[in-house]
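step: validate -> pass
step: tokenize input -> pass
step: predict -> running
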Amino acid sequence: MNLRKYLLFLIILFYFPSSQSIRIKLMIELKYKVISNKTQYKEYCQVLEELGFSGMKDRNTKDEIALLTVLIEKWDAEHLPFQDLDPVQLIQSLMEEHQLKAKDLVEILRISKGYVSDILNYKKGLSKDVIRKLAFHFKVSQEAFNRPYSLKLDQRAGAILN
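step: predict -> pass
step: emit ->
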């Protein structure tokens, strides 16, 4: 805590009852706050990504990851129009917004063009690795891509089953 915050805390401690001063101290020391702008959102997404790959498994890190996830999901729910889109539609929307083609996804996701084609044509689902890479690249929570959607049954497979 810096000197200014410490002095403020001492003044508050002197003038307010102890339970209220504890709440005020917690407010002064908050590491994360409700996301209020796109810059803060991107910053929190970056921190979450770094924490996720840090390998640290202590309780404080897990709590920090959980808190960031809640804050990011709250922002997503309020500011992103993705709720009505299935994961493939979301990918297509983000591709259009960022002026990307399927061949660009091959490079971004480091997967074959056949797999990208199968994803975009609802023939194959998204792997955890693909979801992670999409979320990282587009700065969107993984939950936006990790939702159920229907795949198209391959006509040849359907003929074999009949």
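step: describe -> The longest helix spans residues 59-79.
step: cleanup -> pass
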